[in-house]
Amino acid sequence: MAGHPSQPGTCVTSRLLDILGAFDERHRSLTLSELAKSAGLPVSTAHRLVAKLVAGSALQRCADGRYVVGRLIWNAGLLAPVEGGLRQVAEPFLHDVYAATLVTVHLAVRDGDEVLYLERMMGRASVPIVSTVGSRLPMHCTGVGKVLLAHAPPEVRERVFAGLTRVTAHTVVQPSVLAAQLARVRRDAVATTMEEMSLGASSLAVPVVRQSDDAVVAAIGAVIPDLKRSGPRLLGALQVAARGIGRLL
User: Where does the record place the HTH iclR-type domain (predicted)?
Assistant: First the structure.
């Protein structure tokens, strides 16, 4: 779980933030005991603070007694800059790709050493999807992630290469192989994966380049069952969309 233990004398605000910080992609609902443990608080203290958060709609208590993020936090999160201008510019182009292909389309940015998914439009194809809006996934085994990793600062690539983990039997965990893939991404401006994040799912992704300074600021991609069958037509649609987004940023 996320979160940082509180030190003696820590102010109430810090303790409230510790409780909220316990929630992440893998821990969307937590018990009171789990919240207390993650925040480094006695259960009695956590109970008092959680009650205040529930009263203020920052948390919501479910019927089974577990807690989830409340409407107040959700609404505030949607106002974050990373969720604003880029999503607003990109959304019409993502709709165009989806309408033309009927596959699942993603918009993502790099957040530290992970991929942060800002938008997802679900396609009709029966393909296993792990990502959700707001979720973070590894960069080395996702199409959008490989695009962003290829253009990340050297120190980011070093950290990612030092901790490559295998998600499926097809995940690339050999640094030399991944380095060669990233070099091709920089050369060809396209990344692909085949069942590296989910079995039965392949992905295709391209960079979004801001024209004012040629910076790669995001990646858009799609998840499909078969790259050979759908890849060529999909690649053209993604490239057109990425250029349109880059022009307007």
Answer: 10-71
Query: Phi and psi dihedrals of 122, rounded to 5?
Result: -75, 135
If asked whether residues 45 and 72 sit together in one domain, one would say yes
Low-confidence ranges of the chain (pLDDT < 70): 1-10, 25, 78-84, 123-128
Residue pointed to by tokens 């996702």: 142
Q: What is the pLDDT of residues 176-195, one digit of tens each?
A: 999 999 999 999 999 999 99
Note the pTM of the prediction, 2 decimals: 0.71
pLDDT digits (tens, 9 = 90+) for 60-76: 999 999 999 998 987 77
Residues 6+ apart with CB under 8 A from 71: 57, 60
State how far the Cα of 227 lies from the Cα of 235, in Å rounded to an integer. 10
- Edge to edge, what strands does the sheet with 202-210 contain? 136-138, 114-121, 104-111, 215-224, 202-210, 191-194
Indicate if 121 and 210 belong to the same structural domain: yes
Q: CATH code at 148?
A: 3.30.450.40
* Same domain assignment for residues 159 and 48: no
Domain span at residue 70 reads 12-77
DSSP 9: T
Contacts 24+ apart (CB under 8 A), 20-26: 20/53, 20/58, 20/59, 20/69, 20/73, 23/68, 23/69, 25/132, 25/134, 25/135, 25/136, 26/1
Neighbour count for residue 38 (Cβ, 10 Å): 22
Measured CA to CA, the distance from residue 155 to residue 161 in angstroms comes to: 10
